[in-house]
Sequence to fold (474 residues):
Amino acid sequence: MSRADVAELVAYARRSHVTIIPQQQTFGHLHHALKLELYADLAETPHGHVLAPGQPGTLAFTRGIFAEIDSMFPSQFVHLGADETFELGAGRTKPAVDSAGVGAVYINYLRDIVNTVRKPGKRYLFWGDIAMNSPELVPRLPKDLIAVGWDYWSRNNFDRHLKPFRDAGMETWVAPGISNWNGVYPNSNGALPNIQGFIRDGQRGGSTGVINTTWDDWGDGIFEQNWYGLVFGAAASWQPGESSIPAFQSAYGLTFHGDTLGAIDAAQKHLMAAHAALARAGSGDAGSYLFFLDPWSEEGVIETIKTRPHLSAMRIHAESALVEIARARTQRHLRERSAVDAMELGARRIDWLGMKFQIADEIAQGVFALATLDTVTWKELAEFTGINGKLQDMRDGFVLTRELFERSWHLENRPYWLQNNLGRYDVEIARWVERINQMDAARRRFTRDRTLPTPESLGIPRALERPRPVTGAR
Fold:
């Protein structure tokens, strides 16, 4: 972001009585700086992710960054990051860690960071995931720091994230998450109970703030898909005690979208049910990994076999969400339509994830079945490729979801990073176009010499073949 970008954002937020709190990493998560040769000597490991405590220049590097931040953001709060410093002790600081322990090296350097960037009138936050593992050392930190405990999966028992800091007399905030990372649509099945529980326990223990987190780990997140979890986080923060999930689920569509039909609420529940169907298969949720996984790869075979019994239910819920979204759109007074568009993208991508595994499996079973037919005609092969062929379905699904994703991306982002995302779609489109060409060639060969294609020649693994029922005369 340029200075002009920041100034525009801060002014826009101020008009709505919102304060922008900057977070700048000061310890870990600095790979995009440390991979530069100019800063290579500051890294714990070569071109790694973590600054090396004690290495000349590290604190000067941090001081320079915060000189810019302090001049642009008027917020009294500044977030120093300092989480997930997993490389600490693996490189330059190994002797210090071996001698004093990783907790001491971490705590001492965090204290140095605060003393380096401290400005009058500023309050500094940091992620508490590393320091909490050394509770006996936490009292070494400045008492005016705000420790932010984060936990994106639990529903209860959050004390371990907060107690070390409370015992040291420090202020705490809590940070649940909306589970939007690495997925084609946020999974609210875990997110809503996580938000509910952490904020409830934070209130009970005296925490004074909430950071309800969204993370775009692969850089392909669509922010407009996140409102369901974010709005529940606001409700849970503002309401005393434990906020009701059912009450929220029946009020969200009307409150946020002005939907008087209940269609948005129904669509969100269907998307949660689609995630749950995939979870029953033991495959997690509708994530980017499964979305782009080749069903005929080694890992794809494993996932195909696991998910077979659950794909129909998942797709029915995703398509039912599309029906409800269409019903919601009939209302002229519907608000936040861009978020509705993003929800439709999520439903279509979940549906395609399921369809991809189904259609690829059907192609495989069809090829296996050819060898069992007494007579094979051109028509049997035409089922696989041609107008509305199953291989064309595989190509078309990635083409459509690519177009919808790119459209959503442009509505809220600059072009930066877009090609990294579209490249994944392009790889899958090219993969299935090549398989179309292989099947077309097999059809022509069959026309000439009646030679059937083998599964192996088409890249179909035998591990996908289902046992055939044994029949016979009684």
